Amino acid sequence: MCGIVGYIGNKDAYPILINGLKKLEYRGYDSSGIMLYDKKASVKKAKGKVSDLEVLYKNGKEQKGCIGIGHTRWATHGPPNKINSHPHLSNSGDLSLIHNGIIENYDALKAILSKKGYLFKSETDSEVLVNLIEEVKKTKKVKLGKAVLLALKQVVGAYAIVVFDSTNPTEIVTAKLGSPLAIGVGDSEYYIGSDPSPFLEFTKRCIYLNDHEMAIISLKKGLTLREIKKDSIIDPYIENLKHNIEEVEKGGYAHFMLKEIFEQPQSIKDTFRGRLLSQSLPIKISSIEEHFNKFKSATRIIFISCGTSWHASLLGEYFFEELLRIPVEVEYASEFRYRNPIINKGDIVIPISQSGETADTLAAVKMAKKRGAFLYGICNVVGSSIARETDTGIYTHAGSEIGVASTKAFSCQISLLLLMALDIGNRMNTIEEKRYKRVLKELSNLPETIEKVLSSAKKAESIANKFLKASNFLYLGRGYNFPIALEGALKLKEISYIHAEGYPAAEMKHGPIALIDKNMPVVVIATKKGNYQKVVSNIMEIKAREAEVIAIVSEGDKEIEVIADHFIEIPECDELIAPILANIPLQLLSYYIADKKGCDVDQPRNLAKSVTVE
Ligand code: F6R
């Protein structure tokens, strides 16, 4: 969490920093701050969003200085207030630092520094780090780069940092372990970002720092990359990014979330490109082709992930066990990494992550790797840490997802999981040919089918209007639709702050039914096929207890349309496709409820897009 930006060059730094912070606000928005250097370093901080910081700079026209750093915070140590905001200054006032991550041994370091007379204004681990660097610089009589390197050797934890020394105002130093950091390379100028979005409009040449690497960026000497542990110089690898800027703009939509919901047909097209060539040609996934023997001989597949990606994993289990007949387990990465799991030779571990940076998933990947598992990653962000840590894998190509609530990335994850399961199942002969062909045909038409589902947006909006005062919701689904019930409930609670729970429909009788009365709206995913008649019975039971039912049904379903209070239709399809479609009206319902309640849809309270702390 937290977004960091930096600039060193010959342009005015302020507009670059403030606009960069706005692009990174999805990473945290509790408070923000900027240090600008123009003959002296000046720091401004504000509690709240980047727009609150912007107010302090009036229109920004007066702001001079061609070097600066900025930070948008997701609070870890200490409440979100001005004092705990970054940049943090060292005791002398010479060094300023921004930090994303957690210094785990900050307490011990703080005690040592306190004994030496250092004073701390904030409750943060980051202020400890900037003073540790100052102490090393002073006692070892070294320049900033060396001081950062030596100080980081004493640090336990995760960091992406940028440090500036106003006694040598021609360079900035940056380093990374665990948290992401990208450097944009321009003509005699450099940009820094937690991801490349702050500098995409200026340069597409990018260096992704690896763990244990630091860069000393000097106006006089250019960029020097060093390995921290070995203290050796390394050659930087400059990537030419293919991202486009429109991806990170709202494009006329009221919110990123709505834009991203409507982008789903295109995102799925992009995810299938080059893989699903046509319904009559074999699926082509090079990482599966190359490692097919691993899948063929796999004794178990373990999915690891968090949040929405965990829901995708759960659906992955249903798809893979059905079509591959290989036992599958689904694990919360945060549990898996701490519970001494059994990993056997022949296990394939599949982490799923939109950001590719989620701290728990990344740590679980590292642990599984150490224990000898074969790691196949499914990530959206190209070049992300999880993508780099895994043995092989596949990208979802959903495009940049800015809205904190995941929508298009989830749809791409589950569509890709089905495509993978079809491909592997077909190669292993564990799927009937007729079924393979039918599902492949439906997958080929998926972007167009999703367009059709999106045309129900108005209906979702009018249903949303009726539930703005609800304080609880129950979401029910069975079989392939059960993970979608969980995802629907998560989407509603995270953006509208309405309490919602997802349950397997049949489990309702084992407890949650006690909650049902006229004040508890129940969303039921009741598509044809699968356990349709049993879900119909569940709806009858709910209606008998006077709750309002919002049903997601297959087109032309007359039976449920009569008993449910509200319904949204999705095209009739194979039961393997139904969850992908059924999820979309639930995204829309959550979006409209949250928006009409006046909630901050794209940046819900307490959340951040990329959870880089555990
Ligand atoms: C919810 C949401 C989160 C993420 C979770 C994992 O809408 O987005 O639950 O799914 O934090 O993030 P990734 O997929 O980046 O590992």
Notes on the structure:
It is a single chain. By secondary structure, the protein is an alpha/beta fold. Helix content is 36%, strand content 23%. It is built from 21 helices and 25 strands. Helix 3 (106-115) crosses helix 4 (125-140), helix 10 (307-324) runs parallel beside helix 14 (408-428) and helix 17 crosses helix 21. The N and C termini lie close together (10 Å). The mean pLDDT is 93. Fructose -6-phosphate (F6R) binds at residues 306-309, 353-355, 358, 361, 405-406, 490, 494, 611.
Task: Give the helix/strand layout.
Blueprint: E1 3-8, H1 13-24, E2 31-38, E3 40-47, H2 50-56, E4 67-73, E5 88-89, E6 95-103, H3 106-115, H4 125-140, H5 144-152, E7 157-165, E8 171-177, E9 182-185, E10 190-193, E11 205-208, E12 213-218, E13 222-227, E14 232-234, E15 239-240, H6 256-262, H7 264-272, H8 286-290, H9 292-296, E16 300-305, H10 307-324, E17 328-332, H11 333-336, E18 347-353, H12 359-370, E19 374-379, H13 385-389, E20 392-395, H14 408-428, H15 433-444, H16 446-454, H17 457-465, E21 472-477, H18 482-496, E22 499-504, E23 522-526, H19 532-543, E24 549-554, H20 558-563, E25 566-570, H21 578-596
Parallel strand pairs: 16-17, 16-18, 18-19, 19-20, 21-22, 21-23, 23-24, 24-25
Antiparallel strand pairs: 1-4, 1-10, 2-3, 2-4, 5-6, 6-7, 7-8, 8-12, 9-10, 9-11, 11-15, 12-13, 13-14
Bound molecules: fructose -6-phosphate.
